[in-house]
Amino acid sequence: MRKRKTPTSRAKASRQRPPAAAAMMKRSVPAGDLSLHLERMPRFPLHQLSAPPLPAPSRFQRKLLEVSEGYDALSSVDDGGEDVAVDKDCILSQDFFCTPDYITPEIPNNLNPNKENIACPKSPEKSIRNKRHRQVFSSCILPSTNVQLHEEDAELKFDEFGSDDVGEKKQRYVSQSAVALRYRVMPPPCIRNPYLIENSSNALDVFGDRIAKMAGFSPSIGGDGISRYRTDFHEIEQIGSGNFSHVFKALKRIDGCLYAVKHSIKQFHNDMERKYALREVQALAALGYHANIVGYHTSWFENDKLYIQMELCDHSLSKGHIPRSGDVLEVLYQMATALNFMHDRGIAHMDVKPENIYVKHGVYKLGDFGCAILTDKSLPIEEGDSRYMPQEILNDKYEHLDKVDIFSLGAAIYELVKGSPLPESGPLFCNLREGKIPLLPGYSMQFQSVLKAMMDPDPLKRPSAREIMENPIFERVKKTTSRKE
Ligand SMILES: Nc1ncnc2c1ncn2[C@@H]1O[C@H](COP(=O)(O)OP(=O)(O)OP(=O)(O)O)[C@@H](O)[C@H]1O
Ligand SMILES: [Mg+2]
């Protein structure tokens, strides 16, 4: 499967779900699918909360209510042989909004996790009126979804239990106690990061059966809920935008440091779109730290958009930020270092171009991993900007994906040296793909022959990133680079 980025292939990619993917979604609901979790959850009418008064249900809570119609799993529980209508309320924990508070308790040993309907505890004696009472209430696990509802020590209030009618009191007891009850919903199962080559059996054991292909697409926060972006960051200014994203300089409130926060322009409405969007952060996360790759901190979905918190760089190599001629060698060397690091880990960038090379304190960093793929072609291929794509990609040949990056880097460096954007078509476009690289006055023949080799029409004749790095023309640059790091 292949996607072409130009002019806006990523947007197209999200609009047109691949047929195989559509079929897959029809056949079965993936384990991480939120709607499935919700359908299997016992749900309780939030609107019947009596005390204390709660705010109007959020959009997400309202959705819960909608899907809960007709579902009455816990509306009747066995309480000493009597059926008692249970008017439960719930306070959805932060976990449910994918902002875990890290204190989700383990399920207690003495409770049967496979039982959805748990006996209601005995009603309190009249004498405990006005007393704060801690009592284990209920617990259940939904085995097929890995969604667990946990009990919490609940503070029960019985102030308004003045009635002598035992039946009514039982009913109200459950209702009032539920006000204070918190249902904890575990985050969705862990997602397998396809970019991690060390997916050894050891690593997988850590997750056990909690790994799911479509997990991680947990409920969006935002809308009329709380914005994680607004809560955690103070936005300072927009620093960039691409075909798919806006990027902002933002101060993180908790650590007082500046970051780049990128968020998608388009909303992702289904798991397949989110899965594609997540590739960028999965690739960044799998790669980990490298001085010449933009640092990745965290990511989350909000309002169906993907937010990515990254290291803040000064600017990219575009729009008036062309490096001086002496610095072009440094760009080439440092980008070859980044590509070598990636290719060693089986990942190809597929969108190397000046706009995606950032500078921070004189160090060049490769960014925008939205097209990153595995060199073994085990992921659907998405091509980057066609101005930097070699001929074989335009001919739909994907044998040597690491060498696609080498061509693109050569084309990007050529553009930086020329100081004018590469054409999208025409004679120069064709010449560059046929190995006819116009001479670059003022640049050494060694440098020009490296560029020519990088843009060779035959991918096998292009040097690897490591071979580029080892070229003697970089001797001086290597010293400067190591001083900056
Ligand atoms: N970490 C960062 N630090 C500073 N500026 C950044 C950072 N990330 C992105 N930018 C700026 O934002 C611009 C757009 O970012 P990016 O290329 O990631 O978005 P995109 O929509 O994926 O782009 P494209 O159209 O290339 O696919 C970049 O060209 C750059 O100028
Ligand atoms: Mg970009």
UniProtKB/TrEMBL annotation:
GO terms for cellular component: cytoplasm; nucleus. InterPro entries: CC_SR_Kinase, Kinase-like_dom_sf, Prot_kinase_dom, Protein_kinase_ATP_BS, Ser/Thr_kinase_AS. It comes from the Eukaryota. ATP binds at residue 262. Coiled coil: none annotated. Residues 1-23 are annotated as: Disordered. GO terms for molecular function: ATP binding; metal ion binding; non-membrane spanning protein tyrosine kinase activity; protein serine/threonine kinase activity. The keyword NAD does not apply. Its EC number is 2.7.10.2. This is Wee1-like protein kinase. Residues 1-15 have a biased composition (Basic residues). It comes from Dendrobium chrysotoxum. It is an enzyme of class 2 (transferase). Residues 233-474 form the Protein kinase domain. Pfam families: Pkinase. Belongs to the protein kinase superfamily. Ser/Thr protein kinase family. GCN2 subfamily. Keywords: ATP-binding, Kinase, Magnesium, Metal-binding, Nucleotide-binding, Serine/threonine-protein kinase, Transferase, Tyrosine-protein kinase. PROSITE patterns: PROTEIN_KINASE_ATP, PROTEIN_KINASE_DOM, PROTEIN_KINASE_ST.
